[in-house]
Amino acid sequence: MLAKRIIPCLDVKDNRVVKGIHFLNLRDAGDPVELGARYSEDGADELVFLDITATIRSRKTIVELVEKVAENVFIPFTVGGGIQTVEQMDELLRSGAEKVSVNTAAVQNPNLITEAARRFGNQCVVLAIDARRSKAKPDKWQVCVKAGSEPTDIDAVEWAAEGERLGAGEILLTSMDADGTKAGYDIELTKAVSDAVNIPVIASGGAGKLEHLYEAIVDGRADAVLMASITHFENYTINQMKEYLAGRGIPVNL
Description:
By secondary structure, the chain is α/β, with parallel strands linked by helices. It has helices spanning 32-42, 63-72, 86-94, 104-108, 111-120, 156-166, 187-196, 210-218, 229-232, 238-247; strands spanning 5-13, 16-21, 24-30, 47-51, 77-80, 99-102, 125-133, 141-145, 150-155, 170-175, 201-204, 224-227. The chain has a single domain, classed as TIM Barrel (Alpha-Beta Barrel). It is 35% helix and 27% strand. The protein has an eight-stranded parallel β-barrel with strand order 1-4-5-6-7-10-11-12, surrounded by seven helices. α1 runs parallel beside α2 and α6 (156-166) packs parallel to α7 (187-196). Residues 55-59 have low confidence and may be disordered.
């Protein structure tokens, strides 16, 4: 079994890291450069930087801030938010990112995934999926775009499989229902997507205690776990997470 990854997430708004519940009621969590450096030093396997208002405000990701974060981290670094074209991806990769994450633009133009994979390689392309349980079909999850503000009729599990076919190298799967609740990841959703694809799935949304990480990996079959609240507000350190998982037989990079 490959080592499972611990990945802190920096949701950035107005040059500050923020965190909310169900994508709402955001509160300040600190400076992205300082937090990124701290997580890098503390042993995080990767880092995700999401400019959460870029798409809503119809602007590009903040390249200058990405450069500053990249200068201070020494781990793989994924950037997303407001990315519309392969040219923008190229700019971010040249600014220090190792991967780019697309969500809304990929839904609007699925060929963007294929174009990016051909130009940069599948390993650079992350398909981000914000999903919530469908009210019309309670056994299904629907894809939401524009920072979760706009639901679609797209089935999240089917979209993940299609994303892999188009060339995505990884799925960043966020449960909007669980986001920020600290009540645990949506295991049913995570497992459904993990079973539908052959590429790594990063579970996101709902981490509140160490057991939740274990559940996402073992029961949800996630290849990595993303978290924000429990690391930003210093409930747990990266080392505590890794030691806990290792103690329960999960391979991690200590």
